[in-house]
C-alpha cells in the first residue's frame, strides 16, 4: 500500500499530531551536539512516529507554491564558507509522490506545482538529522510563495489541518528574529534590546492565541523592521500557528537569542 492510500484510508485518530516551529539558526547545528540540537531531539519524545513529515523552510522561496514530489529528494547544501564536514552530510530520507498529490488536493488557495528538482535544504535536514536521525520517514517540503502577503500564508496553512489527524508532522523552520547584517560577534551571548523586544512580543502574542497581530508583524514594535528585515524566516511560524486549534496548548523550547540578532526560540503546538 503506497503512502497516499495509507493516508486516505487512515481513520480519524483521537490523537492529533503536534505541529512544530523550529528556530534552525546556523547550518553548523547539523554537525554539532548542543543545547539547541538536544532541544530539537527532545520534541520527538512521546510523539508517535509520523507517517510523513511536511516542512515549510525559510530557504525555499518560489513564485507560486510548490511541493517536492520526487521519490528520493537530494540533500541540498545551500550555503558556503563552512567546514567540509557540513558539505559531507547526506540526509537520505525518502520522498513520496503520493503524499505530494495528497497535499496538492488539500490546498485550494494555490495551484500547487509538483516539484522534481529541489530536494531538502538545510532548513529541513539540519534539524531532522537530530529529530529523526535514521532518516526513515518520508519528507516533503512546501515552498514559500514570495509574492504573497503573510495573511495568505496563514490561510494556506489552515487548509493543511487534516494532515494532523492522518499522522503527518508539519514543521515550520525559520527564525522569529533573523538579521544577519547586525550580528553581535563581539558579545555573542548578549542579545540586542530590539531583538529581545520583538522576540518577547511574538511569544506573548502566541500565548494569547490571537494570530492577527502576528500576521501584521510589522506593526508589533518599532523595531520589527530590524528584527524581521525580510519575511522568509518569519513566515514558517505563521504556518505553525495557522494549524493551531482553538485553546490548543503551546510549549516553548530553545528560547534563546544567539549573536544578538538570531532567535532560536522554537515551539510545539499540541
UniProtKB/TrEMBL annotation:
TM ranges: none
GO molecular function, one term: ferrous iron binding
Alphabetical list of InterPro entries matching this protein: Extradiol_dOase_DODA, Xdiol_dOase_suB
Matches recorded under Gene3D superfamilies: LigB-like
Alphabetic keyword roster: Dioxygenase, Metal-binding, Oxidoreductase, Zinc
Family: Belongs to the DODA-type extradiol aromatic ring-opening dioxygenase family.
Name of protein: Aromatic ring-opening dioxygenase, catalytic subunit, LigB family
Species of the source: Pontibacter akesuensis
Amino acid at each position: 500500500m503506497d503512502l497516499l492510500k495509507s493516508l486516505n484510508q487512515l481513520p480519524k485518530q483521537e490523537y492529533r499530531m503536534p505541529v512544530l516551529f523550529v528556530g534552525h539558526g546556523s547550518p553548523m547545528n547539523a554537525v554539532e551536539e548542543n543545547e539547541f540540537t538536544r532541544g530539537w531531539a527532545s520534541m520527538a519524545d512521546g510523539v508517535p512516529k509520523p507517517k510523513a513529515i511536511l516542512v515549510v523552510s525559510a530557504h525555499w522561496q518560489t513564485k507560486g507554491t510548490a511541493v517536492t514530489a520526487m521519490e528520493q529528494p537530494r540533500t541540498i547544501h545551500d550555503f558556503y564558507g563552512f567546514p567540509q564536514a557540513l558539505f559531507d552530510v547526506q540526509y537520505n530520507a525518502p520522498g513520496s509522490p503520493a503524499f505530494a498529490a495528497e497535499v496538492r488536493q488539500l490546498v485550494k488557495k494555490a495551484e500547487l506545482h509538483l516539484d522534481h528538482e529541489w530536494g531538502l535544504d538545510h532548513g529541513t535536514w539540519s534539524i531532522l538529522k537530530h529529530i529523526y536521525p535514521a532518516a526513515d520517514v518520508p519528507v516533503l517540503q512546501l515552498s514559500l510563495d514570495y509574492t504573497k502577503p503573510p495573511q495568505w500564508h496563514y490561510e494556506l496553512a489552515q487548509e493543511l489541518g487534516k494532515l494532523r489527524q492522518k499522522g503527518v508532522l508539519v514543521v515550520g523552520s525559520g527564525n522569529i528574529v533573523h538579521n544577519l547584517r547586525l550580528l553581535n560577534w563581539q558579545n555573542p551571548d548578549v542579545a540586542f534590546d530590539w531583538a529581545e523586544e520583538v522576540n518577547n512580543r511574538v511569544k506573548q502574542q502566541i500565548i494569547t492565541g490571537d494570530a492577527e497581530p502576528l500576521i501584521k508583524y510589522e506593526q508589533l514594535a518599532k523595531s520589527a523592521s530590524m528584527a524581521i528585515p525580510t519575511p522568509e524566516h518569519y513566515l514558517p511560524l505563521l504556518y505553525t500557528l495557522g494549524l493551531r486549534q482553538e485553546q490548543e496548548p503551546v510549549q516553548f523550547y530553545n528560547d534563546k537569542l544567539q549573536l544578538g540578532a538570531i532567535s532560536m526560540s522554537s515551539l510545539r503546538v499540541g
